[in-house]
Design a protein that fits this description.
Length: 156
Amino acid sequence: MKLILKILLLQCCVSFVYAQEGINTGGGHVSTPEGTVSFSLGQVVYTTTSGEEGAISLGIQQGIEIEQLNTISNDLDLDLIVYPNPTSDQLILNITQAFFEKLEYRVLDSNAKLILTNKIKNNKTSINMEEFPSSRYILTVQDNKGAIQSFQIIKK
């Protein structure tokens, strides 16, 4: 009787060892000299860590395509960075060069309707997206000659 009880207890303990194991639809492992990344698809539980530079969701994969829509060739030498994308409240537009005085940004909705425009006043500009409904938007940075660069933004 004690032997059967020990076997049942051992089996219960072993089954709890695999409690964190999940059935995933896919995944992989990538190693480079800079570091390694392991990923899996189909996880149910996740945690989100947010910081000043953005957010990362651990344990969940997000089907988001972040893309720069176009770059218009002009005489300006600008590096524009937009983050976090997707966003739920504040979007940051970062210009790495000092030239921003004659620039403005425009936000268009998915129907190409202009919903927000503003002058860019410093290298790091915060764009409030909190009041907008969840959708895809186009953020365009332009000068007095026209568009410089456009980004597709996803509002959660």
